[in-house]
Specification:
InterPro entries: Nucleotide-bd_a/b_plait_sf, RBD_domain_sf, RRM_dom
Number of helices: 3
Strand content: 15-25%
Structural class: alpha+beta
Keywords: RNA-binding
Biased composition (Polar residues): 127-141
Region (Disordered): 27-50, 121-141
Domain RRM: 43-121
Oligomer: single chain
Helix content: 25-40%
Number of strands: 6
CATH class of the domain at 44-118: Alpha Beta
């Protein structure tokens, strides 16, 4: 019995080293996620992190400190009417937009930290968005 315990004590560390050795598994770490490139500077800003109580007028007022706001819109839920947490601000010039982005990105609005970045252009509509039935449908026009 004592002999068996001595043998196990001598073998156990080697066995564990072999079990946990990374070279035995040929482990390669996953590639780091690629950050999406920022959108090109434009007069349009995408604002995220908005409070549910933020209104279009409140968004316009907060961003008007940095230039002439041509258009501001808080995207709202159709049923409740509350903000979905994001919106858009359009300035008269790209320079004003960059000042607004720098001035409001990471600041508080209605008690929430908001993030401002240049808005990405909308992708072109697909055939599905033009009212065609979904795939697998037997609907004929």
């Amino acid at each position: 019995m004592a002999m068996r315990a001595a043998v196990m004590a001598a073998v156990a560390p080697r066995g564990l080293n072999r079990l946990f050795a990374t070279s035995a598994f040929n482990f390669t770490p996953p590639p780091s996620p690629q950050k999406e490139p920022e959108a090109d500077p434009s007069p349009n800003l995408f604002v995220s992190g908005l409070s549910k109580r933020t209104t279009t007028d409140g968004l316009r007022e907060a961003f008007s400190k940095f230039g002439e706001v041509v258009h501001a819109k808080v995207v709202t839920d159709r049923v409740s009417g509350y903000s979905k947490g994001f919106g858009f601000v359009r300035y008269a010039t790209t320079e004003e937009a960059s000042a607004g982005k720098a001035g409001m990105d990471g600041n508080f609005l209605d008690g929430w930290v908001i993030f401002a970045e240049y808005a990405k252009p909308r992708p072109p509509p697909t055939q599905q968005q033009f009212g065609n039935p979904p795939f697998g449908s037997n609907f004929q026009r």
